[in-house]
Amino acid sequence: MKPEDIVLFHLTARRIWHFFSTFVTESENFLPPDNFQETPTPVVAHRSSPTNFGLYLLSVLSARDFGWIGTGETIDRIEGTLKSLIRLERHQGHFYN
Length: 97
Prior knowledge:
Shape: globular
Number of helices: 3
């Protein structure tokens, strides 16, 4: 792998984490929004999906591995998300998409 590829992957991972660290908050029940629209005006899509849940949880662990967050924040974020997931309605055990 080329050094510039490693730099690109690292910067991409950092941008993804920035999205999650910005938008996954207590006011959003620690669940990631589906998307953020920048234009024509900034709008957060206040819905999510099982795919978003999984990507977010993996991103939390990756942020910890990269050293962007500490163990305490990692635990707080995962715990907050799991508490919200427990309360979500499901169909035959599966989260709605």
